[in-house]
Design brief:
By secondary structure, this protein is α/β, with parallel strands linked by helices. The chain is built from 20 helices and 20 strands. Helix 9 links the parallel strand 7 and strand 8. Helix 1 packs across helix 2, helix 1 runs parallel beside helix 6 and helix 9 crosses helix 11. The mean pLDDT is 94.
Length: 552
Amino acid sequence: MTETMPTGAEILVETLIAHGVEQGFCVPGESYLAVLDALYDARDRFRLVTCRHEAGAANMAEAWGKFTGAPAACFVTRGPGATHAAIGVHTAFQDSTPMILFVGQVASDQRDREAFQEVDYRQMFAPLAKWVAEVDRADRVGEYVARAVATATAGRPGPVVLALPEDMLTQTAARPAQRPHAPIQARPAAADLDAVVAALNQARRPLAILGGFGWTAEAVAAYAGFAERHSLPTAAAFRFQDLIDNDHPAYAGDLGLGANPDLVARLAAADLVLAIGPRLGEVTTGGYTRLVPPVAEQALIHVHAGAEELGRVYQADLRVHANPGAFAAALAACSLDRQWPDEARAAVCARDAWRQPVAAPGAVNPAEIWAAMAERAGPDAIVTNGAGNFAAWVHRFHRYRRFRSQLAPTSGAMGYGVPAAVAAKLAAPQRPVICAAGDGDFLMSASELATAAQYRAGVVFLVFDNAMYGTIRMHQEKHYPGRVSATGIDNPDFVMLARAHGAHAERVDSTAAFAPAFDTALAVAEREQRPALLHILLDPRCIGPTFTLKKL
């Protein structure tokens, strides 16, 4: 018997699976019904999670790629579906995360008529993705999908967008040959390693900065051993604190928003900066003031997986084109003639002083809450967050102890923490997952509570409620004091909202009440495999650890 030729949709699904992409997130749409039908036949080989909003689906796909290192697929319908998903694509681009967004498209014979929900995705996503294309023929689907996986994972990883005309998805074609994709990693040349070792041996006040995508648990462990042997002070780039144990004897802290002034001064005084992996973006560099481009005052060695990033902003003294994990592992095999024990001790002393709890107005002190949370959740806990001043408390007072325990957007996207937590729990069901969210941040993706409940994702959501968009209010008070405009918000009863979704929920109105409430929430989440939420009431004056409103 002659084998029936597969449809474009079936080839798409088969190609994804052949290249190791076995996880997808979606909001279903009629423009790609054929793909949903093909996924039905592959349901034992490909897990598809149905979300409540395309932004949530795209953020889950981004978080999956960030956590696992492998791209996930996101499927959305045309027009509104694609525009909603754009936030996740932007986050994946700025965070260097591999993901593939598939967008249903109008039929080929309706193109360029402004048909129902028609958008030119090449123009729309061009500045947000590594590659954008539209697949016009079923016999080229395999080629396009294979290229999408390769592009998303190569060099500096990032998002790829493929538009799928609905008539193409039902056309048939011969089944293409497939060769599973293996990501290519740039490795440091021997001459580059020799130059790095020579520079470190000459340095009196070096500082390493870790960040970027491409690390492995083995590379993290290898670098940690190297830094400890040589007492090399090491900082984390913005939202990359899980690349080194925050109790490591050479860990100096993170160069994020509201960074420790001592660490900022240490960076300014460094005679050598070894940046392994980060792009050295605006936040890590303090608005490009901690390292001033194009040629920083400090000697700079910049290691990055994307050749196009080296020299784009900073003209480093030495540019090393290498995957950061591969570089760290190779560096760890080298021996230095120098150690910096006095520098490391001073950095650690300043780090520990900086993360001591500070006073906060009202009955709830977020600094003490994070100390209690870390003790109870344990070192394997994964913490996710979106954007807002609440995150300053997380980054300053929570200690990340394990690799891949932090999921947060370097893009500064609100609404990220909730979907990221759902994706993390699905990827690592054996690990505790804690989502930290401000009230405004949480409500941007609160509908994904339903997704967490449906897929039995036992996430603990901590909602810090100060009834305002705190970051904007803080800047408003700094620049336009006494002129409050648009930053106050009236919130729902978060406990009732969570319970309506089948989640366990309690209200916390004092620091002392947090620990027992958290213990219960974590136990319910782990034992019953359902979400739990703590509604934490903050004094409205409690905006951040370094800024307090004087008047309301």
